Write a sequence for this structure.
């Protein structure tokens, strides 16, 4: 028998008969790097894209067959998505897709805006000159992808830049919290990334880099807060979801 530590300090026995389950536990910030993370990422993308509509049942047996695994990592993936607000799990009922209204989405972006502002303020306080040079290098890669017209690469490079800032901000709790807000990735995939959006993003990030290099804490925080809320506008432009004010 192996012992697995469960959240809250409780331990649970787990046999090695299910190797997928043995390797499925997701640590904070590791979604996407494990079997559970991959399952959660796939399900969340289908939810955001509307392939799995609000209220749809999520049958763990069928999902296990779909992913070629046991039910254990599927259940853990659904529990992870419940924490992110994408899945509802009620006692003695099958998990189902949660409803995400425009009000919910706006609240998510407001929280993200303030978290990002804190992140960039801390980067100004803590980043070395070498880290700022690395930020510039990552930005150049993002810009090059945009100039090639490679939208997917542009989004990936932009994520790398923001993840790098989180890693150097000097606050591990904030870094972990940002890493667990994976809803932002799915929303970016469905947002209509027009040439105008990309051009504005490049311009905004250029200004942000100048603020970091000038060690202007207030300006960096203000810029990233505004940029985050601009991301919400891009999602609205994509025509995703329910109209503003609809809480049903």
């Amino acid at each position: 028998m192996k012992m697995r530590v469960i959240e809250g300090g409780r331990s649970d026995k787990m046999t090695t008969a299910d190797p997928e389950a043995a390797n499925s536990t997701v640590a904070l910030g590791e979604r996407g790097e494990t079997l559970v993370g991959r399952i959660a990422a796939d399900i969340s993308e289908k939810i955001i894209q509307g392939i799995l509509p609000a209220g749809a049942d999520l049958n763990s047996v069928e999902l296990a067959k779909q992913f070629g695994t046991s039910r254990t990592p599927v259940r853990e993936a659904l529990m992870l998505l419940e924490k992110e607000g994408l899945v509802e799990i009620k006692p003695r009922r099958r998990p189902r897709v949660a409803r995400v209204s425009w009000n919910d989405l706006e609240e998510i972006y407001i929280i993200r805006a303030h978290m990002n502002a804190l992140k960039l303020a801390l980067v100004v306080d803590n980043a070395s000159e070498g880290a700022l040079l690395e930020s510039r290098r990552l930005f150049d890669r993002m810009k090059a992808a945009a100039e090639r017209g490679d939208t997917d690469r542009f989004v990936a490079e932009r994520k790398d830049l923001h993840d790098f800032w989180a890693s150097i901000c000097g606050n591990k709790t904030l870094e972990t919290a940002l890493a667990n807000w994976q809803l932002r990735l799915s929303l970016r995939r469905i947002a209509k990334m027009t040439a105008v959006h990309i051009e504005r993003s490049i311009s905004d990030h250029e200004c942000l880099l100048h603020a970091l290099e000038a060690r202007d804490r207030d300006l960096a925080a203000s810029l990233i807060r505004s940029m985050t809320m601009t991301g919400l506008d891009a999602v609205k432009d994509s025509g995703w979801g329910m109209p503003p004010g609809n809480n049903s």
Summary: Residues 188 and 235 are 7 Å apart (CA to CA). The radius of gyration is 20 Å.
